[in-house]
Amino acid sequence: MTRLRTLTTAFAGAAAMFALTAAPAQAAPGDVTTTCASTATPAGYVDISWGYSASCGTQNFDPNIKQIKQLTGLPIGTVVQACGSTYYPAGWVQTSSYYTSSCVAFPNSGFNNNAWTLKRVS
After folding, report:
1. Element (H, E) at 11
2. Quick one: which of 34, 31, 26, 45 has its CA closest to 85?
3. What is this structure's pTM?
């Protein structure tokens, strides 16, 4: 009986682990996540700010983390501010561009426009 209980527990644990690794949770529309800059921004997301963190492994203070926002699923007419370091998804249009210090993704990039106001149109 003990052997059967141990075997059942092992199979249940393996099944739970497979379920967790096989199907990661999908971010909700508008969710913001922080990631290392070396990670590509996924489709449907835009960069919304850049910064520095020792947890991403560099020893200088160049921007090495970014916050990304999930745009997929946001309703038509939604307006968001995004950094110009990634392309915006289909169905969104740029309504203005401007400079902001929170979107400096590269050191010594000057004060050129580096951010967009985006609007969902379809």
Report:
1. helix 2-22
2. 45
3. 0.75
Is the separation of the CB atoms in 46 and 118 below 8 Å? Answer: yes
For residue 4 the two structure tokens come to: 């059967």
41 has a pLDDT exceeding 80: yes
| Closest by CA position to 78, among listed 65, 66, 95 | 95
Task: Write phi, then psi, for 11 (nearest 5 degrees).
Answer: -65, -40
**Tens of pLDDT along 43-91?**
999 999 999 999 998 778 889 999 999 999 999 999 999 999 999 999 9
Structure tokens at 67: 């916050």
Q: Residue 122 burial (CB < 10 Å; 0-12/13-18/19+)?
A: exposed
Give the CA distances from residue 10 to residues 5, 22, 24, 105, 112, in Å, rounded to whole numbers and listed in that order: 9, 18, 22, 47, 58
